[in-house]
Automatic annotation (TrEMBL), chains A, B:
GO molecular function: hydrolase activity
Highest taxon of the lineage: Bacteria
Catalytic EC class: hydrolase
Catalytic activity: S-formylglutathione + H2O = formate + glutathione + H(+)
Keyword entries, A-Z: Hydrolase, Serine esterase
Function: Serine hydrolase involved in the detoxification of formaldehyde.
Protein name, per record: S-formylglutathione hydrolase
Record organism: Pragia fontium
Similarity remark: Belongs to the esterase D family.
One Pfam entry name: Esterase
Enzyme Commission (EC) number: 3.1.2.12
InterPro entries: AB_hydrolase_fold, Esterase-like, S-formylglutathione_hydrol
């Protein structure tokens, strides 16, 4: 059954169009907003779809307005879907802190009170929105996934759990080992409780170490002036595991760049080109 | 005497750096913030400087984060200065409306109470900030100017009043005839009082009709889906005058684009390339 979608905004940008939609999510039990970029429909009737997952504090609009991805996407003929980072609304549990609650869903399914009632971002993306883009938005092409920081964690976890759904995965400054860094531990404790076995189901390092089936090409960019690099990110941990299990991962340390969208804007075209090479092949 | 500048932020972006500065403006009698993009200093030791003036409700960061201009500016070796759109602070007169007061300085010198105490954006840009970029930031190259909506009005007025200071001027969806459209009339009435002779000193149509001295090349882009086109913008009025007085103006109507930064992002590279051809020549 098609999902009921309300079009909130549309803007021509480069040779494509940026849309913003609202819909009621039966997975999250709340209204959700997402953004979608479509390249020129006349030139690209069945574009591949890149999922972009944003970081802590973001909603669907940060990447939309700040990354400048539409220029390359319009040229390459790539669609981009930009979901929100958590359930939203006055009925949805929240805290004052910016690294937990609304804007900080960590792309997992919460098991603990009061979070479990709404915080099921993994199922929302993996089932509801994945179905919506095909049934209601008519996407029939292949998918890839990318993200930033908490969204880099989300993209890696989503791809490692569902290698059949994506052709490739990339991340900017991802949280690769949330169960062993403060941001992740704080969130996993709240959303998942004390059981570290449950935590490991949402940890890219653990998932890659135990991966089975197809390995997807991974590109990670990390700025060496990122203030969160040492305590929260530590991408070399994932590189070490990738080498051990022979997973095709490229980590690029970019000198002078920080954690901001200025960093993302500087390399987003290269990420789109990276994905394009895998999305083009049947 | 060098101005005292406080560096608030800096971010590497593409092959350049985005800075944000704060300083006390003796013209505006308040603290002011501006942003500055510099291309790679090793490659471009004396870059030309493009002034960007933003529209209603904006501050220095809208263009910085949303226009994606740094990519082309880094490649071309062009610096960009992005001032705020009005004086700021609790001591500065303001109203609830978004089209008057803070965020809506209209790049003029107010004469009326309570605005005259702080609202002198024209002198701030034309004298204080123009001196600051040379004395304190060390710019020695040529200047160009551009802007959006109210900032397009500002860029045109600034260039028409000071053709010796700029090599070229461009605008996205500018207010070209503020004294005869609601946004401009509302602001001019408040800032300048009832004397329409005074209004005409801040109206690009009037200034171009009476221009003397050097004519600067002008490029204007206007989206035909812009909701403000008919009532507030009317660029054909300026085209008519330019044809009459033989002023070198190019107006491009861009089909499907609206008034947003998505429109600006789509054509900013072409504007930078337009300015570059005049900035390169000695």
């Amino acid at each position: 059954m098609p999902h009921e979608l309300t079009l909130l905004e549309q803007h021509k940008v480069f040779d494509g169009c940026q849309y913003r939609y609202r819909h009621y999510s039966t997975t999250l039990n709340c209204e959700m907003t997402f953004s979608l970029f479509l390249p020129n429909k006349k030139k690209f009737s069945s574009p591949p779809l890149l999922w972009w997952l944003s970081g802590l504090t973001c909603n669907d609009e940060n990447f939309t307005t700040k990354a400048g991805a539409q220029q390359a996407a319009a040229r390459l003929g790539m669609a981009i879907i930009m979901p929100d980072t958590s359930p939203r609304g006055p009925e949805v549990a929240d805290v004052k802190e910016w690294d937990l609650g609304q804007g900080a869903g960590f792309y997992l399914n919460a098991t603990q009170t009061p979070w479990a009632a709404h915080y099921r971002m993994y199922d929302y993306l993996n089932e509801e929105l994945y179905s919506l883009v095909q049934v209601s938005l008519g996407f029939t092409g292949p998918h890839a996934i990318a993200g930033h920081s908490m969204g880099g964690h989300g993209a890696l976890v989503m791809a490692l759990k569902n290698p059949h759904k994506f052709r490739s995965v990339s991340a900017f400054a991802p949280i690769v080992n949330p169960m062993d860094v403060p941001w992740g531990q704080n969130a996993f404790q709240a959303y998942l409780g004390n059981n570290r076995d449950l935590w490991s189901e949402w940890d890219a390092c653990k998932l890659m170490a135990d991966y089975q089936g197809t390995a997807l090409p991974v590109l990670i960019d990390q700025g060496d002036e990122d203030p969160f690099l040492q305590q929260q990110l530590q991408p070399e941990k994932l590189v070490e595991i990738a080498e051990k299990v022979n997973y095709p991962l490229t980590l690029r340390i970019q000198p002078g760049y920080d954690h901001s969208y200025y960093f993302i804007a500087s390399f987003i075209e290269e990420h789109l080109t990276f994905h394009q090479q895998y999305l083009q092949n049947a």
